[in-house]
């Protein structure tokens, strides 16, 4: 979590900071081969130089960004989760539980789907 220490320290609300750290720690523990990095002022994970998933915080939620392809692939599950979402990200309200099963599937999908990807973002 060293890569994200400064980012986490800037989250004012202690509960939001703890929740964000919990999610990032979970990703690091569940997917130890992913590389944690800060880019565009937000924590993200990469695999062989390609983006897998990113996170950002706002006053009301933790945003999860699996790229548009991941959003499309999991559209039904995202809708069933009850999470607010856009074309590019999922918003997990601070007072809502984290659906780690869905998060795991999205990360696994991106790792698999981008196995041969040689660019940071999908083309």
From TrEMBL:
Pfam families recorded: DUF1801
Entry-linked InterPro entries: YdhG-like (IPR014922)
Alphabetical list of Gene3D superfamilies matching this protein: 3.90.1150.200
Chain ranges of the YdhG-like domain: 17-111
Highest taxon of the lineage: Bacteria
Protein name from the UniProt record: YdhG-like domain-containing protein
Source organism per UniProt: Cohnella lupini
